[in-house]
Specification:
Number of strands: 4
Oligomer: single chain
Helix content: 40-55%
Largest sheet: 4 strands, parallel
Strand order of the largest sheet: 1-2-3-4
Number of helices: 6
Radius of gyration: 16 Å
Distance between the termini: 33 Å
Length: 139
């Protein structure tokens, strides 16, 4: 995984704060962030959170377990973004590498450790109105 150097991330967050942004998001692609990469982002989050003019820090790092999310929260992360994509019954039509429940678990754990959560989904994937309704109802 390639992340910007901490100095670059911190500088961009400071710029966002000076521009009166309420939140600054750090986003990666891939399944998760762990090991040295997690340490790297935790250090950046901590420095951003301690800055005099600091936007709230948000992150989207894929599926995370309790330990990872607790570490992010302790570093100063305020909000975790993790989309559920679609209703559980339609998810196998969208993704075949992992199940919908694994995505839901990340959202639930983020809430349990005290993070705010931003989570959504996509419509128009072929799920139809009934499927979109199930997703909207939390099914």
């Amino acid at each position: 995984m390639a992340l910007g150097e901490n100095k670059e991330i911190i500088a961009k967050a400071a710029e966002a704060g000076r521009n009166q942004a309420h939140n600054f998001g750090i986003v990666t692609s891939g399944v998760t962030v762990k090991g040295e990469a997690l340490e790297h982002v935790c250090m950046a989050i901590s420095e951003i959170a301690e800055a005099p003019v600091s936007p709230g820090v948000c992150a989207s790092f894929g599926r995370m377990n309790r330990e990872q999310l607790e570490e992010l929260k302790a570093a100063g992360l305020e909000r975790y973004h993790h989309n559920l994509e679609t209703a559980e019954n339609f998810y196998p039509m969208v993704c075949t590498t992992h199940g919908w429940v694994r995505r839901l678990e990340t959202v639930q754990i983020a809430l349990e450790v005290g993070l705010k959560v931003c989570s959504g989904g996509l419509f128009g994937l072929g799920e139809g109105l009934a499927g979109a309704g199930r997703f909207g109802a939390g099914a």
